[in-house]
Amino acid sequence: MTDISRRKFGKLALATAALAAPLAAPAGFVRNGFAAGKEIHVGIWGGSQGEFVKKEIIPAFEKDFNCKVTAEEGFTLANVGKMRATKDNPKFSVMFIDDVAIPICKAEDLIDQLPKGDMPALANLYDKFAFGGWGSALAISVASMFHNTAVSPPASYADLWKPEYAGKLKLVSPKNTPSVFFLIVAASIKSGKPFAEAQYLIDDSFDKVAELKPNIMNLFDNGPQAANEVAQGQADIGLLELSKYIYPYTAKGAPVTMSFPKEGSFAGNNCQVLVKGGPNRDVAVAFMNRMLEPKVQKAFSEYALTAPPVSGIEFSADTLKYIAYPLSEMDKRGLFTPDWEFINAKRSAWTEKMNGIFAV
Amino acid sequence: MAAGPVAGRFSRPAEMFWTAFSSTRHTGLFLVAPALLFLAIWFLWPVLSMIVSSFSSHSVDGVMVEGITFENYTRLFSSDLYFRILMRTVRIALLTSLCAMVFAYPLAIAIARGGPSLARLVTITILAPLLVNVVVRSYGWQTILNKAGAFAWILKQVGITSPPVLLYTEWAVLIACVHVYLPFMVMPLAAAIGRIDRTVEEAARVAGATRLKVFIRIVFPLSLPGLAVGASLVFSLSSAAYVTPQILGGNFSPLLGTLIEQQILTLNDWPFGAAISTLLIVMVLTVNLVFLNAVNRRFARWTESAR
Amino acid sequence: MTETVSPAIRIVVAIILLMVVAPLVVPLLMSISDTAFIVFPPQGFTLKWYAAVLANPEARGSFLFSLELAAIVTTVSLVLGIPCAAGLTRFKVPGQDIMLGIILSPLIVPLIVTGIALLQFFSMMNFRATLLQLVIGHTVVCLPYVIRSVSASFVLANRNLEDAAAVLGAPPHVVATRIVWPQVRPGILAGGVFCFIVSFDDYPISMWLADGNHFPIPLYLYTVIERSFDPSIAAIASLMIFFALLLVLVIERVFGINLARLAS
Questions:
Q1: How many other CB atoms are found less than 10 A from the CB of residue B37?
Q2: CATH topology for B71-306?
Q3: ipTM score of the complex?
Q4: Fewer beta carbons within 10 Å, N or C terminal of chain C?
């Protein structure tokens, strides 16, 4: 860790301690007695968000509620896979997934609607991030291109197909959500249409994807590792990752940052869902509520440099450099959210096509 | 000795028990049964039921449909994609065995024919890395082979300014596989060479044969059984490798293992994952049988002609 | 006796050994680099990455869990394996060849496949205890090694000594403890040590069965490689290498097992 990050971390630790103390002390035993001795399993993400959840949020919650929370890191599709595998006898109570998977979980009857009455923190949630009550966003990232600060990124995605980038790009692997964003970009470049129309043209755009192959160094599974390698100069540009994986390193002083080509950027909505029939539902609901409380949201957002999905949080100018907040600012940036229901039905076939291009 | 009184105190019941136990016809079976049952329940049953499940079809929401289908296997062979990944797996496993063989002979000769201190040095240096986790060893290669890594740095020192980038290529996977599985080739080879009668080699040398000739005509043919064991071990292990291609292949060179993981964890297609797994078992089994058989027959011929 | 290893071979051997050692030495060099990211050659000198790793409760937890798991697996494998080896080599067992085939079969099936088969089987049976799942999975892989190693020493043990002792009037249990045990002990030790190492280093079985509470060190190392940004990853790799060296010392000095024996 650099000095900057250590100082920042210290500040954070103080902040969390300050917020945990008043919550725990007066109400602890009376209000939260129901949770005593219970355990829930929570599926979370990796990277700095996961780190913060494990190191700060969970220990404070466990202390306040005298319960145990076990976190397991995974990515969206793997987390959905875990829910499916244990559908008859759920192991997890809360899952963190991207918005892409909420329709899938709903259709497969894996999740429950959030109990509004038991979650006071839902009051501040922007409607846009409530998904009809089937979950809530936790953090809003922007998905775009990231690059080493020594290179100047192209103003348009179309330039990436030029031979000067041969072997200099890293592309997100088809198992991750931003891979879909890349396919939309490719379709948009090929057809010249905006994202909203291009997303329906992906099936015809794989020739464009294949043309990019000579420029791709590898497909990365993992955002932080890709950010690291771009910072080291092993590759110039990374193709589409959520800002939550990049900006925490930018803020630590690593020579990697994001750029926003003129075609537009994507909204990456990290969400939480309540597993249907999961153990200790009351604790699970309390945990989800905790995730949305203003103080947790503020610290969480500042650590991972994402925008909170709830209103009324004050950020310093330093933080606001990295995030689009409040809602009016998000709308101004015009972040694109794909038609997930259409895309989900095609995802498996697209993965196979991506394999066919890159894995042979 | 402390054992005396203890043995004395327990000797009567122990003796009675042992005499009664060791004299029945089924003693052997009793002794073997626990381990056998354990493996039957927790190994044979799961593996067989996985093979059976590879003949079931898959529906979108992950529920298996009853009935037998060959759909998963036709899919494996009808698509160019899976066939090519299969071929890459075979290719990497064969190349790994070949490279391991080339590296292993000098090492095995040093172990079997060198002085005690040389033999010990080589043995320890070859075997100690086995105790270091594969993940760590693959990471070590990553730090060497990446664009800003040790290998590029050394090339730069000798004046090569645009070094080839090996990380995230098949080469990186091959290099690390050879490193990881080399000991499994060296040890059987060293044992086989150690069994060769030295006087034969010495006689040949006295008769004027060059070292190379001695190797080609005597050491190599007589070490074939060791080579067969080593090669089949290295082939089996590298064809099933998962960690190394995952860390060093950068999704550009997936092997069957990666494909299995993708089908099951990401796409949730269990029957298809089971089909790939079955294919992997069949492949490893066949190669082992064919290879050991061929070399054994060959070996018989070689030794005959040597006599 | 003339020198049988030519100088040319010595040079080749030296080069190969250097290449074998390189991926273990390079992380060591990088782990002391006083930079915020991994660079080669390393710059400056610091031990702060080691301090960071040692202070990390997750790394410690995974390490201790792996030790615990390997100890349980070794115990279970020995308890099942020693009688089995004795039965196979000292008694008549019906269908001996088939049994031997079953017992050694886990060595032929790729580990990654054994892992999935178990995961599928456990979820089919609604069997949820993760620790038990891991113990079973590892034991399936380790047991054949133990049986092979212990059987070999039973076969090598000198039966004339046993017969002589019996003729001289020693009761069977005394023959077992005084004559057979000292002869098979090295085989049992070697089998046990090998079993411990296989379990401690296993990735392809654990990757399917582990969960957040039971997270063996190889899986932890993998996640660290994926997410870590600074030389602490090199430090943790170096610590694992030091641990392996310590293991070599313990195996050779304390147990008195020649390392070469483990691989045979």
A1: 11
A2: MetI-like fold (1.10.3720)
A3: 0.88
A4: N
